[in-house]
Amino acid sequence: MEERRYRSASGAPIALRRRQHSASCRELAVRCPRLQLRSLSAVTSAVWLVAYGLFVLSENSMVLSAAIFITLIGLIIYLHFVKIDQESLLVIGSLGIQVTSSYASGKESTTFIEMGQVKDVVINEAVHMQKVIYYLCILLQDPGDPQGVSEVVPLFQSSKPRLDCLIEVYRSCQEILQQRKTAPQ
């Protein structure tokens, strides 16, 4: 297993792990930074300070209880549905591509795309907030038109790796896709 350090589009440090299981099977995982205690403390303190201010004005202790309850529920929702720790791509030349997102709470979301549906894997660009960002996506083949594309599936939406990291993932995917195209049917 090989691990390299990169940066995301926002400048946050990320790590790319490459694991080659066989010549036609490769796993690529992008790890995002863990939840920062400093940002968690800042948000919690801000909510509780506002609640304390409202308590002083209203002299109602339910305000403080509600602040604690809202903070805990918000943290659980954030960890279970929003904060993604790792996004991985498992490319198996004979079967397909599996995309997995691992959340901070331990929950995983997995999508599998059969290799027969995959037309290509490409790096695309988009203009976002006056800057160009790059993203990796899978082009799905249109069943009615062999030359057409029916859907574009973006990858690594949470970690948003920069171009240098995307190029390495792209090359790994293309190696396996080329093996599949050159192999006898």
UniProtKB/TrEMBL annotation:
Pathway: Glycolipid biosynthesis; glycosylphosphatidylinositol-anchor biosynthesis. GO terms for cellular component: glycosylphosphatidylinositol-N-acetylglucosaminyltransferase (GPI-GnT) complex. GO terms for biological process: GPI anchor biosynthetic process. The chain crosses the membrane at residues 40-57, 63-82. The keyword Disulfide bond does not apply. One of its GO terms (molecular function) is transferase activity. Residues 88-157 form the Phosphatidylinositol N-acetylglucosaminyltransferase subunit H conserved domain. It holds the Pfam family PIG-H. Keywords: Membrane, Transferase, Transmembrane, Transmembrane helix. PANTHER family: PHOSPHATIDYLINOSITOL N-ACETYLGLUCOSAMINYLTRANSFERASE SUBUNIT H. Belongs to the PIGH family. This is PIGH acetylglucosaminyltransferase. It comes from Pelecanoides urinatrix (Common diving petrel).
